[in-house]
Specification:
CATH topology of the largest domain: Beta-Lactamase
Oligomer: single chain
Strand content: 15-25%
CATH superfamily of the largest domain: GAF domain
Order of helices and strands: HHHEEHHEEEHHHEEEHH
Low-confidence stretches: 255-264
Largest sheet: 6 strands, antiparallel
Distance between the termini: 40 Å
Number of strands: 8
Structural class: alpha+beta
Strand order of the largest sheet: 5-4-3-8-7-6
Length: 264
């Protein structure tokens, strides 16, 4: 039926854009979806108007819009979809005794994808779907450290390095030095840089070919857990990250982060 056919075409375009690791131009979508040029332009225009697609800043092509991202988040957060991932987080939280979370990059921020709260009454609550900066959070800096120098420069040029606490690094050269250390160690830390009195440690979750897909972190009030003590739990985090990486391979349940296009 015509209506069904149009719906399937729209879904095929959304799937192609969601799977791509770069902005998708009309020509790319014509090839990937086997659709004529006029159809691609018409459907992309409609999806963009509704917020499911958007044009990538500084590049010619489409990337997922906020409505598509929000829809994916709702699916991923549903109890029927995240049982294994949530069980891994619960195990980490129980072993460490502190809040554990997964965050994925979205544009110039990190988005909390899933989390398990500590049982302690004193805790910093950041809900699923909450957005946090890249430059001063453990997961955010971890993601930045995985980008190429060109990708990172383009991304940081679109970010205001806000001074969130006295410990926040706002000097770009100093930030770059710190990111190089994170890249070498494969571990990122937030030493009260985002919220005063809170520390965090993060490790990467990678797919089968080693690409960063998300960050796995623990965070806690510094009065209860020092940064040095948190770093002592890195082996637990890495073991959980490997298990979560296997889940990505088997079920493709976490979105692959989208880097800035290398093309202007």
């Amino acid at each position: 039926m015509p209506n069904q056919s149009r719906s399937i075409r729209a879904m095929s375009i959304l799937e192609a854009v969601a799977r791509a690791d770069r902005p998708m131009r009309a020509a790319d979508l014509m090839s990937a979806c086997n659709l004529p040029k006029a159809t691609v332009h018409r459907i992309c225009g409609l999806l963009s108007e509704r917020g499911y697609l958007r044009h990538q800043i500084g590049a010619r092509g489409y990337v997922p819009g906020q409505k598509l991202i929000d829809f994916a988040n709702l699916v991923q957060a549903s109890p029927t979809h995240n049982a294994l991932r949530h069980a891994v987080l619960e195990s980490v939280a129980q072993q460490v005794g502190e809040t554990c979370n997964i965050a994925i990059p979205d544009g110039t921020e990190m988005v909390y994808w899933d989390r398990v709260e500590t049982k302690w009454p004193l805790r910093h609550q950041l809900k699923i779907g909450a957005r946090v900066p890249l430059h001063c959070t453990a997961n955010g800096k971890l993601y930045l450290s995985t980008l190429t120098a060109k990708q990172r420069k383009r991304l940081l040029n679109n970010i205001e390095l806000e001074k969130c606490t006295p410990n926040t690094v706002t000097d770009r050269d100093e930030l770059e030095r710190g990111l190089a250390e994170i890249a070498a160690a494969g571990v990122s830390a937030d030493n009260e840089e985002f919220i005063e009195g809170m520390i965090a440690v993060a490790v990467p979750i990678r797919d089968a070919v080693g690409r960063f897909v998300a960050g796995l972190a623990i965070h806690a009030p510094v009065v209860r857990l020092s940064l040095e003590e948190a770093l002592g739990h890195v082996d637990i985090l890495r073991a959980a990250a490997r298990e979560l990486g296997s889940e990505v391979v088997e079920s493709n349940t976490m979105a692959r982060p989208r880097h800035e296009s290398a093309e202007a």
